[in-house]
Specification:
Strand content: under 5%
Structural class: mainly alpha
Number of domains: 1
Shape: flat
Number of strands: 0
CATH class: Mainly Alpha
Radius of gyration: 12 Å
CATH superfamily: SRP54, nucleotide-binding domain
CATH topology: Four Helix Bundle (Hemerythrin (Met), subunit A)
CATH architecture: Up-down Bundle
Distance between the termini: 23 Å
Largest sheet: none
Helix content: over 70%
């Protein structure tokens, strides 16, 4: 179960890796994939929803630091 979750999260961050900034569209797609991965790993829905809300709040409108890629910053 954890191997699959790790693989799915790695794929999300790999997709964000090459982008210059975190766009709303990229964030939506990434959060959707993370939500699916968490729910498939039997994470409680309320916990997953709260986690994703905090990630969205922290990520929206953030400039990517020069030394980091979007995947690393999220």
């Amino acid at each position: 179960m954890f191997d699959r979750l790790t693989d799915r999260l790695d794929n999300v961050f790999r997709n964000l890796h090459g982008q210059g900034k975190i766009t709303e569209k990229a964030l939506d797609e990434s959060l959707r994939e993370i939500r699916r991965a968490l729910l498939e790993a039997d994470v409680n829905f309320k916990v997953a929803k709260a986690f994703l809300a905090r990630v969205r709040e922290a990520a929206v409108g953030q400039q990517v630091m020069r030394s980091l890629t979007p995947g690393q910053q999220v």
